[in-house]
Amino acid sequence: MIRGKDGTPIPKVVIERLPRYYRYFDWLEDQVEKISSKKLSELMGSSASQVRLDLSYFGDFGQQGYGYNIKKLKAELAGILKIHSPTKFIIVGMGNIGRALTRYNAFADAGFKLEGLFDVKPILIGEKINGITIYDVSELGPYVKKHDIDIAIVAVPKEVANEVANTLAASGIKGILNFAPLDLEVSGDISIENIHIIDKALALSFMIREKQQR
Amino acid sequence: MIRGKDGTPIPKVVIERLPRYYRYFDWLEDQVEKISSKKLSELMGSSASQVRLDLSYFGDFGQQGYGYNIKKLKAELAGILKIHSPTKFIIVGMGNIGRALTRYNAFADAGFKLEGLFDVKPILIGEKINGITIYDVSELGPYVKKHDIDIAIVAVPKEVANEVANTLAASGIKGILNFAPLDLEVSGDISIENIHIIDKALALSFMIREKQQR
């Protein structure tokens, strides 16, 4: 359970919204000094009361009637999101998605440091992408332990995803960003976020086709 | 507003869960004939009452005390999700993510048909990836109209994402799967689903670091 400054448990749904606030502050700070919760909520497509409630979990950044100081808010959120100290991560699975993520510079910009790559195919082992080495997946557990890796991106076929996730869990990984199209079953205190591209595409397809039938 | 068989509006959050049900039915059908809402909820990590409520929006697939017939359920959901008739899509932006999605076979397996690719870089125009041609982004609007494209994947830098989205909207696109790290501002009746990879990674980073401080 993650708690705010006054000890209130913070719902996961609020935590998941914080990076979005951070993006907006990053964009706004070059334009204005302060912003009201009303204006911020209009930009973000939510309600002013939700904005005030979300930000209140992390202390009082704003002053009634004066709006929020954006630079201060961004700095506080950077602290909360630990953006200044790099989060060490690895990518398991050098298929199309895994390779693309290896070259995705936005990770570095957001404070993530890519340490290693893993695959099962002998022909790939030892190859480097952007200066990062691909290791054999048999070395995954020892590597995570030795280098104290925080997060693993799992981008392997669904048939082997749970096996990979359990190896990671047993080696002390703290979080998994899962791109495999299944819900991982992992024991232990590990945080998991899923990016299910096909689920999102199917939901979209369904929504637009239902609209056409109206 | 999307409505179920009895006219009840279906919440977006339920619609977004349907592809996940579909994945489970697809996996279960080779193993068992029927499944109870209790067993299904255990597999999916939700509650039996939520499973029953979710499925009830789409008619009565189950029989009290007998469980749900999985093949029938999968067929009904395939119909609801329109998995048998292909959804035509294009990808705009041939950076790392766009290229990876071009080669992502799971789209075809889920009933999506990739029709065209778009980029702004002259050197890429005319190149083919997996037999699909890259066109100049200036042809985007006419192409969407002419080929009656359903969905566009937007994988361009955030600075140009809204311009691309508005071109798509003006050309009659029905849905956008947005990988650009911003919330698109598009006018018109367009469905949008976001895949914000960095937001998810930041949320994960935040969760694990908070845990370490306990």
Radius of gyration of chain A: 20 Å
Mean pLDDT of chain A: 87
| Low-pLDDT runs of chain A | none
Distance between the termini of chain A: 44 Å
Query: Strand arrangement, largest sheet of chain A?
Result: 6-7-5-4-8-9-10
- Annotation, overall tally of beta strands of chain A: 10
Major protein interface: A-B, 61 and 60 residues
Describe the structure.
Two copies of one chain form a homodimer. With 214 residues, chain A is α/β, with parallel strands linked by helices. Chain A is 43% helix and 19% strand. The first copy, chain A, has a seven-stranded mixed β-sheet, sandwiched between helices. The longest helix of chain A is centred in the first third of the chain and has 17 residues, at 12-28. Chain A starts with 11 loop residues before the first helix and ends with a helix. The mean pLDDT of chain A is 87. At the A-B interface, helix 1, helix 5, strand 9, strand 10 and helix 9 of A face helix 1, helix 5, strand 9, strand 10 and helix 9 of B.
